[in-house]
Amino acid sequence: MSLQSSLIDKIQKLKREKRAIILAHNYQRPEVQDIADFVGDSLELSLYAMQTDARTIVFCGVNFMAETAVILNPDKKVLIPDINALCPMASMLPADLMKLYRRKYPKAKIVLYINSLAEAKAYSDAICTSANATEVVDQIDSEVVLFGPDINLARYVQMKSSKKIIPIPQYGFCPVHKLFSKREVLRLKQIYPDAEVMAHPECDPEVWEVADFIGSTSKMYARTLTSRANKFIVATEIGILHRLKKGRNDATFIPAYEEAICVNMRLHTLEKVYLCLKDEKYEVKIPEKIVAKGREPIEFMFKIQKYKK
Ligand code: 13P
Ligand code: SF4
Hints:
Layout: H1 3-17, E1 20-25, H2 30-35, E2 38-40, H3 42-51, E3 56-60, H4 63-72, E4 77-79, H5 88-91, H6 95-104, E5 109-113, H7 118-121, E6 126-128, H8 133-139, E7 144-148, H9 151-160, E8 164-167, H10 182-191, E9 196-199, H11 205-209, E10 213-214, H12 217-226, E11 231-235, H13 240-247, E12 252-255, H14 270-279, H15 288-308
Helix pairs in contact: 1-14, 3-4, 4-15, 12-13
1,3-dihydroxyacetonephosphate (13P) binds next to loops.
């Protein structure tokens, strides 16, 4: 038996014993995606975390995702295999800045991208993901909306909504999605003229300009299942290619930039997943006050989802 299959057996056994589930984001390493009970984008992972009756959730994603699972499941144990899996974009909007913006714009509502710290969520009015940002902004009761921490998602929402969007902080960004450029996409388009271009809204607007489809990671996945194209140029973190290939093994997926790797997402390995289940660490903990204050804005987002059905 190979080292990998013995690790997989041990993980499965521990999962049954501890009534645990493994959730993995679309950017996780292929072997981590393959062992997960559910693989998805930020919105789907939050919904799944809210609905599960498992006692323990092993969250293979970055800190803000695991923190969201804690806020939604204060009675469950939420574990993360590597405690250093932090999202640099989320860190660009700490609670102190949120307090400052609240003071500066007392009448405006604040919508935060789920890629934000729990301490920041506690000061927000609503949470959104890249899959529902415009709907959430349109449903919130204010014509002026502070939106953060991703300036590109703020710009994307501004393009779709008639409300006034103020980005907070002024220039929050994802370092991974900064790596994509219009020039490189156009170069690839010359090599693969019949390929469809898919881009994440965290990319710079110049990349959306040359994209055929803009959406969250799972929306991209869904798109490939219905599109007639059989070549796709993909402008998001390359971990998603594994899931895309599994869904459409007849298609070719070309990364819009080969080195677009989120090192934080990659920190979780099979071995760390095993140790996490065995030693029940690292448990993600958030002060009770933040859990209570953070839940309301997330629930607002879920209400919007229902409203859509
Ligand atoms: P999705 O919600 O589209 O999966 O995006 C999460 C993320 O971290 C993008 O960088
Ligand atoms: Fe954060 Fe960007 Fe990594 Fe997503 S890809 S977790 S936004 S650093």
